[in-house]
Amino acid sequence: MRLRHIEVFHAIYHSGSLTRAAQVLHISQPAVSKTLAHAEQQLGFKLFKRSKGKLLPTEEAHALFPQVEQLYRQLQGVKSLATNLQRDAEGLIDLAISPALGFDSIPLAIAQFQQAHPKVRFRLQTIHNDEALTTLIERKAELAILFDPPSYPGTETVEIAQVPIKALYPKRLFADPPARLSLSQLAEQQLIDISDSGPVGQLVWRQLQEQQLQPHSQQQVDTYFIAARFVAYGLGCCAIDALSARGNRNADVAVADLQPALSCPLQGLHLSNKSLTKLTQAFLPYLAKAITQLSNEL
């Protein structure tokens, strides 16, 4: 018996009618009748007999059915697997990201990923760390990608990259703009306070405290983008992640490495009871590569 024979036999066996079998299989009744006749011709015996307008299985059909049922279930399993594989190939990657990723790294990673997976769709939203758990619980995103996200019960983290922290300063501040600056050198200047902006700012301010440095700060902001814009207008210096620094480049602003180097972990956060899709797992190395590439270009 061929696969089509098995499908038709199974449908008629359960429905007792050519018409209902055709409806189940989404084909015409003549097609069902023709396939049944072909199956019976190959087998050399009848599978059904008519009785009071119904098709009743013959003894031979009853004998065949257990094996046919097993084959039919396997066939349905193959079809289901094929559908899932197609959904993965043409599916959706649903992410909530730190705003810093939106400047260049996410666009670059998606552009490179879609060269290999042109049918995959992306849905993105920007969030801050304190919104991560609600976003995941409410199924607004599959994965939240953030700087050093909090550890919540019922969640797991995925390591993605270590993002360097850079110093931004107005070029006119130094006659010979340095390529490296220490925190003590930054603390001697007007330093824009980003201690309440999230993990990057908190990391910088902890380092300042550990070194017992007291920076001069006349401005306090809660986003790295605003801090970078303040630097562009000569209002001070700041220390922010390399992705935000690259995304806010300005002709009047210089970027320096911190000495000693500082970096902040970029991690993905997802619910423990919901494994990441294969597509999302496949995308993360592209993002890590893009972050490394962009950070090294500064």
Structural notes for this entry:
There is one protein chain. The chain is of the alpha/beta class. It folds into 3 domains: 3-89, Orthogonal Bundle (Arc Repressor Mutant, subunit A); 92-161 and 272-296, D-Maltodextrin-Binding Protein, domain 2 (3-Layer(aba) Sandwich), CATH 3.40.190.10; 162-263, Periplasmic binding protein-like II (D-Maltodextrin-Binding Protein, domain 2). The chain has helices spanning 3-15, 18-25, 29-43, 59-89, 105-116, 132-137, 183-187, 199-210, 224-232, 242-247, 278-296; strands at 48-51, 54-57, 92-97, 121-126, 143-147, 155-170, 180-181, 238-241, 253-258, 263-271. The strands form 2 sheets. Strands 3, 4, 5, 6, 7, 8, 9 and 10 form an 8-stranded mixed beta sheet that branches. Strand 3, helix 5 (105-116) and strand 4 (121-126) form a beta-alpha-beta unit. The termini are far apart.
Mean pLDDT: 91
Gross morphology is rod-shaped
Give the helix/strand class: alpha/beta
Write down the CATH class of the largest domain. Answer: Alpha Beta
* Overall number of strands: 10
- CATH superfamily of the largest domain, called what? Periplasmic binding protein-like II
Order of helices and strands: HHHEEHEHEHEEEHHHEHEEH
Based on the structure given, which CATH architecture of the largest domain is correct? 3-Layer(aba) Sandwich
Q: What summary fits the major beta sheet?
A: 8 strands, mixed
Straight-line N-to-C gap: 66 Å
Cα radius of gyration in angstroms: 31 Å
Q: Total number of helical segments?
A: 11
Percent of residues in beta strands: 15-25%
CATH topology of the largest domain: D-Maltodextrin-Binding Protein, domain 2
Domain HTH lysR-type: 1-58
GO molecular function, one term: sequence-specific DNA binding
Family: Belongs to the LysR transcriptional regulatory family.
Organism: Pseudidiomarina insulisalsae
